[in-house]
Task: inverse folding
């Protein structure tokens, strides 16, 4: 990951720029960072290593663009976002290829879908511009008291690498629709798709409204979260960094939205011992995106009556996935983002193999030779007979390691599901809908799915409770709550 410019300069790779005040520029320091392809471990590009000086320029540009942008009629802002959506739709295939290469996500199962969902997000928020409305408050005939939804100002957004283009869209679309201007910091591990998307946005937006900076978290990210002109922070990433962002926000009393990690439970009842539930558990675990998803259903609570038979079906299906080149249409599973994450995932697998009482059902450590050893390819791994207090069952692994835990009493299953500092997603599997809803209401999570393990669609309220985050951004209400502030105006009509 992060090293110096020399590594990038030594090879003939393309040199990317970042987007500040309507221009494509390098870092003020002239420094660069290499971008590595996880499938091959080759450096494929270099990006500017943005720092405090670059952030200051970007924030200044966004602040200068704000007064005019907030006065653009919301409908017109929405139309710009919809034009961006149309233009992105034409480029879905290009975006998908860039994503597959830089993230290691398999193109068929993940990268293409991500590019399409970014289009959906742009289009969805573009259509909501007219909903930025306020209320009137009935204080009496002699008074007109009303609220306005006003933009907050310059938004500083920081995104991770696991779904970079969709997550960039999820910051850009609601922030801009609501009349804010934006400085977005891309993740150092996956900036290329975001930059490609920015080249599309650039064609439809006034200068300074959207600025995209590349660089490291501790440099560009920290400078952005600490900048005094930034009036709102929106962060997606680890819980650890989320706390740093919230502290930075506390210094200046600016609102934050945090979308952080998870250790999401799947609770399977005896009547769901069938193929559809097995397929659903695989989807919820996000095995085909190497489980690098904050909503991965990574703790599997299986009823004792079906424990062995369900796991056997699950292991058989999981073993059939084809792991390989992210750009190959036949690959089901690609590579882990970088060496650090790869080693972290391998560390958890090793720990699982050495735990007394653990039972490896499928997977294990990655191959040390052959084509898969050329990239960061982890193998989908399931440990049976896990305990909810194992580190593997408590910590967000962000890799394809699933632990299966037995239960007999429903209250006990829910107690274990809730025994975590996370609270992002959850999955309940039973045809008894009354029971499913009782469990859904008892689970401490921001988003519960019953009998399916899909990703988020624009319009759903989505976000975490407990240390999985605060705030919602994915819906109309999310845009209103996270990217506008209310002002009340009260007029004495008797004068
Ligand atoms: P991270 O949280 O460190 O990185 C996310 C973003 O925050 C990146 O753009 C990074 O440059 C930035 N950042 C890092 N440190 C910062 C700081 N001090 N100030 C401002 N910005 C900063 O995530 P990382 O290191 O890539 O992954 C570590 C773990 O985080 C993963 O294993 C996973 O558990 C979790 N994670 C969760 C994600 C989610 O969607 N909830 C996404 C990515 C990681
Ligand atoms: Mg980090």
Result:
């Amino acid at each position: 990951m992060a090293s110096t410019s020399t590594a990038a300069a030594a090879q003939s790779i393309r040199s990317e720029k970042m987007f500040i005040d309507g221009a494509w520029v390098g870092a003020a320091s002239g420094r660069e960072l290499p971008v590595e392809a996880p499938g091959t471990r080759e450096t494929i590009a270099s990006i500017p290593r943005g720092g405090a000086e670059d952030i200051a320029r970007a924030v200044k540009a966004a602040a200068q663009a704000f007064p005019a942008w907030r006065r653009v009629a919301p409908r017109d802002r929405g139309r710009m976002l919809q034009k961006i959506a149309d233009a992105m739709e034409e480029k879905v295939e290009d975006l998908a290829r860039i994503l597959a290469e830089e993230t290691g996500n398999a193109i068929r199962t993940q990268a293409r879908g991500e590019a399409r969902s970014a289009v959906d997000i742009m289009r969805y928020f573009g259509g909501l511009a007219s909903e930025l409305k306020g209320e009137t408050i009935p204080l009496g005939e002699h008074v007109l008291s009303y609220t306005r939804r006003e933009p907050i100002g310059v938004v500083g957004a920081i995104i991770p690498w696991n779904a970079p283009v969709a997550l960039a869209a999820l910051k850009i679309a609601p922030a801009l629709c609501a009349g804010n201007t934006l400085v977005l910091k891309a993740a150092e591990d996956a900036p290329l798709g975001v930059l490609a998307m920015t080249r599309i946005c650039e064609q439809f937006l006034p200068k300074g409204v959207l600025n995209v900076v590349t660089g490291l978290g501790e440099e560009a990210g920290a400078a952005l979260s600490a900048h005094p002109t930034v009036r709102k922070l929106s962060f997606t990433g680890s819980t650890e960094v989320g706390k740093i962002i919230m502290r930075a926000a506390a210094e200046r009393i600016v609102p934050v939205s945090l979308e952080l990690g998870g250790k999401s439970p799947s609770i399977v009842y005896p009547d769901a011992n069938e193929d559809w539930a097995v397929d659903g558990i695989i989807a919820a675990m996000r095995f085909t995106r190497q489980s690098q998803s904050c909503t991965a259903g990574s703790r599997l609570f299986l009823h004792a009556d079906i424990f062995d038979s369900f796991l056997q079906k699950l292991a058989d299906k999981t073993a059939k996935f084809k792991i390989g080149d992210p750009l190959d249409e036949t690959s089901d599973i690609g590579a882990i983002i970088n060496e650090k994450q790869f080693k972290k995932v391998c560390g958890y697998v090793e720990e699982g193999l050495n735990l007394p009482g653990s039972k490896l059902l499928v997977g294990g450590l990655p191959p040390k030779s052959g084509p898969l050893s050329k990239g960061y390819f982890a193998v989908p791994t399931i440990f049976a007979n896990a305990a909810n207090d194992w580190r593997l069952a408590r910590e967000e692994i962000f890799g394809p390691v699933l632990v299966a835990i037995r239960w007999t009493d429903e209250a006990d299953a829910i107690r274990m599901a809730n025994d975590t500092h996370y609270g992002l997603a959850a999955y309940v599997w039973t045809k008894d809908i009354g029971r499913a809803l009782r469990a859904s209401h008892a689970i401490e999570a921001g988003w519960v799915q019953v009998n399916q393990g899909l990703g988020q669609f624009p319009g759903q309220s989505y976000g975490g409770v407990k240390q999985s985050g605060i705030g919602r951004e994915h819906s109309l209400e999310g845009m209103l709550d996270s990217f506008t502030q209310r002002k009340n105006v009260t007029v004495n009509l008797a004068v």
User: Anything to note?
Assistant: The longest strand covers residues 143-151. The chain has two domains: 9-260+467-488, 265-458. Residues 217, 238, 241 surround magnesium ion (ligand 2) (CB under 6 Å). The radius of gyration is 23 Å.
